[in-house]
Sequence to fold (732 residues):
Amino acid sequence: MGGGRGLLERTTAAVIRRSFGDVLGGLATLALAAGLVVPAAPVAAESPDPAFPASPGGALLEPISMWSCGDAVERRVDALLRQMTLAEKVEQMTGSGFIDGAWRTPANARLGIPGFAMLDGPRGVSLMAGRATSFPVAMARAASWDTEFEERVGEAIGAEARAKGANVLLAPTVNLLRHPRWGRAQETYGEDTYHVGRMGVGFVRGAQRHVVASAKHHAVNSIEDTRLVLDVIVDERTLREVYLPHFRMIVQEGGVGSVMAAYNQVNGQYCTENVHLLRQILKDDWGFLGFVESDWFVATHSTELSLIAGLDIEMPVPVYYGDPLRGAVESGVSPLTLVDDAARRVLRVKLCFGVSDALPEPPTPREQPAEHLELALEAARRSIVLLQNEGGTLPLDRAALSSIAVVGDLAMTANLGDLGSSVVEPSFAVSPLEGIRALAGAVSITWVPGPPLTPEGRAAIAGADAAVVVAGLGPEDEGEGGSSDSGDRLDLGLPEGQDDLISTVAGLNRRTVVVLEGGSAITMPWVADVGAVVMAWYPGQIGGQAIAEVLFGDINPSGKLPLSFPWDEDDLPVFDNIAPRVTYGFLHGYRWLDAKRIEPLFPFGFGQSYTAYAYTNLTLSREEMGPNDRLQVTANVTNTGRMAGDEIVQLYVSYHGSRVQRAPKDLRAFARVHLEPSETRSVALEIAAGDLAYWDVKTGGWQVEPIEYGVHVGPSSRDLPLQGRFRIVPVK
Ligand code: BGC
Fold:
């Protein structure tokens, strides 16, 4: 066995261990050793069937929608199914392990059917396939509120995945952030279903120019430490209105080809055997035509139940599918029609997306092409959120300052995020200190390690014109996995010593800026003592440069929070990452804080700029509309400051006279606009009456209530200067 294979085995085992913890990681490693997970083998031969192109993917320019795959594909699938034996159909429904740089499902050489080659993930292509561009994490990109830009990021990640031979990208992660302590917060787009949905649709449209995207993890997967066993109890209305609308958008508007069933249970059934989630809602109600694959190794728990529920592929190796499934059909326990349905979905996606398991021809750049690096930098610029800026602390004027102390061990680190399945390995990365040094011009930069501070460090901070503390979380504080890995956060505070570090620096230097890194909300007991606070998230491989550009004012910060930052964890619903069963209520995030009238530290949608914007002149295209209509809303936004900038305009809806519990307001539209100084733009937003419906448990359907609705437009969920009203009237 060659050294390369050994290395790959070790990498695979390490990633498995990170994902599953010691015990399961150990089992998975045993499986690897036993040959269940095969880390090296040649890829399947070229397909003789013209319906499965030998090297497409890279050449596909239009996003592929499952809806555009018509009768011709179904006839082709019919013909294939007629030729396939039961064993061949079942074979299409299992993974074959990690082979030659990707998680694979088998090809069928006899019929020329290619296999799937799957790679993570949400911030770039997994390190398991070598080096790739490391983008800011999804939570950072969510702060850009830029769905078109997210489409470009999705396209770049899809292109790199395809260039490495993959045809399925295990992304985006679109689980709602119910609580900021969730270990995988950084992988998703935030706490609001509408916002998560829009960003996810953007990503999927881009990625699916090259590969099949896989929206994960269906569903209600937002606690890490107990994810393999947890049972989430959630009522039907909450499920339909809060935890699923973003998945539905990604299926129906994004045309996603694949959905990954989560590890956890929902209402007493594992997601992989949850008839309600997979068969009734995803496939029947939403009309999903693609395939459902299980999450990895230990997400599948049964043969018959999973088949009935609508699990189409067991990943990454056959345990309950494979021989047991074939046996179940042969003995009459499981109906062949269900196997046919699953195999049909797999074949349909392969045909619709022109899936090939060969490397693309002509070869495309394998890793980090210059335009992807530029995109990663631009994504970081758009993601950074200026949370506080007292008395013009920022930007730091190079002409007026002679020295800056850059404080904190994290300043020296290119902090890219979690080391679980979303880990990406770039060939280089820029730390905040490197970025600041590169852009400092004549300003002298001194790095001061800490915590703790040395006497020399204190003197350097006190003697500098300004101090920039880089603080925050890292892979040891939050991430995928549980028990032996970081998993869920222990609390919402900074790691030990960092609060004291910031307070001490603020006491030593009157011009103190705090740059925070991390995947979700952080509490800030020192906030009143510092001049400026910048949320930089995990900003990707060139994030250090973007941070420096914001600090020096080369870039006007424009990001806004995709989640609420509370003063204290007690302000939020309880996060229980120990109990085997938890109940999720209707409210969380800003909807919870609004309903309980709790003032957040920084609200959902909040972010400042070096310029200022004024909101005027709200117009509604009508005062009344029917339940199937759409309302056009416009608002004028003016840049009243001296610097060009991008503003994120938000529209929330409130409900007046509703018969059911509603959140005080819900985000229903947003737009990002560029404004030169003194420029005014009329920003167009739209509300679909259908998006205001509630799930009626009595009728088992959506109800658009004939009541009055409020429209609230402004720069954040707690600053909505423009107000309007309209009414929905029943169809006559
Ligand atoms: C994660 C998925 C990931 C899969 C394959 C699982 O542990 O939950 O998000 O796609 O591993 O790496």
